[in-house]
Design a protein that fits this description.
Elements: E1 7-12, H1 26-43, H2 48-55, E2 57-68, E3 77-86, E4 91-100, E5 103-119, E6 124-125, H3 130-136
Antiparallel strand pairs: 1-3, 2-5, 3-4, 4-5, 5-6
Length: 138
């Protein structure tokens, strides 16, 4: 994985993701963004449950700035992107987008998300473990 690399993850809109108007409910987009960040880690060989068990840390969202541009609808195929940037010893920032797979130049959502590496059970920020920095090439 490289800081400059754009990771993509496909998502299908299910009925449960939509509101009464048949469009994706605004909070579902946050779930889509989260799933893509999880799959980005998994693609690098990092499982979050093992990160907790072996290193006692988790990532917690500290900021999410989401711009809703267009609505997605039931059964559409979407693509979620993840572009990471290390912003400090304990924080990572991500630029993320959600697009219709067949229209990648028309963002539905653009987001800036920041996470902190948190030590469990104290829930205090701590430096990102060095092996993660090396693995993720941050």
């Amino acid at each position: 994985m490289s800081r400059d690399a754009c990771f993509t993850w496909p998502i299908r809109v299910y009925y449960e993701d939509t509101d009464a108007g048949g469009v994706v409910y605004h909070a579902q987009y946050l779930k889509f963004l989260e799933r893509a960040r999880t799959e980005w880690l998994r693609a690098a060989g990092i499982e979050q449950d093992r990160l907790l068990e072996e290193h006692g840390v988790v990532f917690a969202v500290t900021r999410a700035d989401v711009r809703y541009r267009r609505a997605a609808r039931f059964n559409e195929a979407l693509t979620v992107t993840v572009v990471p940037e290390k912003t400090g010893r304990a924080r990572l920032a991500f630029t993320q987008t959600i697009v219709r797979t067949d229209r990648p130049d028309e963002p539905l959502i653009t987001a800036e998300v920041e996470v902190a590496c948190v030590e469990v059970p104290r829930f205090r920020a701590r430096p990102i473990p060095e092996f993660l920095v090396e693995t993720l090439k941050l």
